[in-house]
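Cross-posting from the modeling subforum.

Setting up a comparison between two proteins and wanted a second pair of eyes on the formatting. Protein 1 (sequence, then structure tokens):
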Amino acid sequence: MMNMTRSALWSRSRAALAGAMCAGALLAAGPASAAYPDRDITMIIPFGVGGGSDVLARTIGNVIAEMKLIPVKILPENRPGGSGAVGYSAVAKQKGSPYTIATVSVSFFTTPLQGGSPVSYRDFTPLAAIAQSPYILVVPASSEYKTLDDLKKAKRLTTGTVGVVSDAALLARMTSKALGVQIDAIPFDGEGEVMSALLGGHVNIAYFNPSEVLPQIQAGTLRPLAVSSSQRVPALKDVPTFTELGAPIVHTQIRGLVMPKDVPAEAVTYWEGVLKKVAESDAWKKQYVDRFHDVPQFLDSKAFGAAIVETSNRYETLMKELGIIK
């Protein structure tokens, strides 16, 4: 009887010990997950210092730091090379880690489609988008083309683009289809050359981000005809959208952040909250939206992911039409 009692007591002791260990484990796990992030975040920038992607990434980091939205630092790290392939590959290799982030650029889509990168958008987790950069279709102030309808009457038009595959080339193809007029995209080495070609009468039309073209519009040397976003640009309230003018064209550069594939859902939710606060802040409006005349827009992870797929499909269609890929 005594042995049975001792056995029962021993069993109870073991059960109590096991319960205590489980409770201890849960308590240890709880604070660890609640403490995310508990170390610095690496912001990989797939391009050099001073470029558009660098400015975007560092501005996001600055706003987050100023507003004290996270308890750790964001450490920017430039990894240029391979038209974005080097930097984006470095992010994708951190599969499952919620401590590496990157911004989305045109090369995020085009380089993989051209076979220049071992990773594509499928290797990333969309976090959120916080703004969009529209394009303004412009002509010289002396141009005979004063409206979008005037372009329909042209037999053939030319535009300038930086490289063969770009947003300007994509928009030229979309405009061509919408208006029923052939538009030839001529590649140049930079936006400055495109501007010179337009002002010099060597191309008929051009597409620029608002920050690139606003001074010329204000000076009266260029005439804006339409904007490629779904809504008008605050800095150019009198310029209608393509859709307002009956042309089904909506295409913008999406400004958002991604992480590697398979990061915890909790991390995605965390960054959705952080980036929503950034997108709605006066600091972001002053430091980026007003500076570059972007359109503020917040998209959560799901909506941003859908926009990424849609954008990639647009580029793929364009590149196939141009014979760049099969």
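Protein 2 (same layout):
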Amino acid sequence: MGEKTEYEEGDKAPNPGMYTEVGEARSFHTEISNPQHIKMEKGDTFPETTNKNRKWKKVEKARVH
């Protein structure tokens, strides 16, 4: 069983690192303008996103091909 890769407001960060907002669609064709970027430590609580349909994702996992 793998680790969760998308997080919502109130979830706890599983690992330290940079996280960014990703769009509601899970397609690499969908891009969002000016996504928030945050630095998190393990156990920090994810803040609210700019749009209720967005999620947080670790930067290295959010890259597109």
